[in-house]
Amino acid sequence: MRDTIDNSNPTATFSGPYYLSIAGKLVGTEASFDVFNPATGAVLAQAPAASAEQMEEAIAAAKKAFRHWSQLEHAQRRAYLVAYADALQAHRDELARLLTLEQGKPLKTMAEPEVDQAISWMRQIADRPIPVEIVEETDSHIVELHHTPLGVVGAIAPWNFPVLLSLWKVAPALIAGNTMVLKPSPFTPLTSLRFGQIAQSVLPPGVLSVVSGGNELGPQMTAHPDIAKISFTGSTETGKHVIRAAAGTVKRLTLEMGGNDAAIVLPDADWESIVPQLFWGAIGNSGQWCVGIKRLYVHRSFQPQFVQAFVDYARRQKLGDGLDPEVGVGPVQNKMQFDKVRTFLDDIKANGYKVALGGEVDEGRPGYFIPVTVVDNPPENSKIVQEEQFGPIVPIIAYDDVEDVIERANDSPFGLGGSVWGRDTKAAVAVANRLETGMVWVNEIHTQGVDIPFGGHKQSGLGTEHGLEGRQLFTNPKTVLIRK
Ligand code: NAD
User: Fold this and answer.
1) Per-residue pLDDT tens for 222-252?
2) Which of 33, 35, 105, 156 most suits a substitution to test ligand 1, by most atoms within 8 Å of the C-beta?
3) Distance CA 63, CA 466 (A)
4) What is the pTM of this model?
């Protein structure tokens, strides 16, 4: 049954009903799919599965809305974005709780900060117009560089940070004058459907539509002639499909993809004091972090003591349902990822690598729980060092020589992020400068900001998010030469 409901009161129970938002309306679907609570493995709600026709309607509505939206002054679009941020703020607690329910992350330490950061991002982006640049001025002419909106942007999001990573796309696309169709991950559609619903009460129809459904909606978007750009966050494998599909219509692309980030703890590091930061850098969000520490290189002179301190710290963190305020580490988000992470545990076991903590899944426990697992010095060519685990497992690898560890860190098809830790900041920066990654932190990790460009090198990404560079990628550069 297809229906359209009044969206003046966008309050729903967590079990639903949930609706697509298309052309300013909340729309039901004929088909639906189950969304699971990863902490229990039970069905949380039914999400609407859009038909191809409904995706067409959303794209057509975005195309129509673009005519008016793109002509607004910055101040007018700013007012809409601020109103949207206010509306999201009014639903902040509900969104955070729903995020924990569908994603699994701890409510207080992960879900609430994610929603807060997303709302703050919206407000900050609203205040950042892209200025017209005078690139040349002579006696005879003046040359201006403008940044004009592209048209309809298709946003394709993953399941690890469904609120933040989606609104990271919505805010810069809309403020630049584009309209958007957002497709959330089928694993975590609910928060996106809710913030889509909230958008319909403040934004003009068609400016932001949220369309959930199966993976097949992705190729429909990436090949669509009326979508000018795809902003994608997800795995490198899917990103390659996006590149191929986008070729037919020469779409603009920003791709944020997988990583295998190294953290290098230098010989002079005050290693005891940074164990908590490194722990959360690796295990926060149950390791489902594109820029999570996935390889932890520690100087051999203290690697055994470091492993012990890391394990001691890890033992104090409770694994469980993210709604429990005592819990620091939640479940893995979905069954597919749970099975994938288990292949790493199987490989570690089969090869007899030393496991300092964890390693065994409690088969009787409902939900998708992988215990925090610390692998003590596995070989460089092991699966856990070479591949992206995207789960709460961390290899702590001993190294002797700084030159050698730089080479090992760079010997990867990925180049997303990394971090370097040492007392001598200058020496640490020198190492950081040699890492082949789009982002590197020195004696800090995971700080991001509206004005801090972020993107991957090599197979981790294409283009940049954030910063003026990232916002400009939601525009066409347009040169205007004026004879005086
Ligand atoms: P995924 O690639 O499986 O899915 C991402 C999105 O792509 C989903 O919405 C999915 O429905 C859609 N999709 C699937 N097939 C498609 C196709 N053929 N065409 C278009 N879209 C399609 O990724 P995931 O499992 O949701 O996310 C985990 C991965 O994302 C990890 O590799 C992680 O490192 C990466 N990631 C990267 C960043 C970053 O900023 N670089 C951030 C978060 C996650």
Assistant:
1) 999 999 999 999 999 999 999 999 999 999 9
2) 156
3) 25
4) 0.96
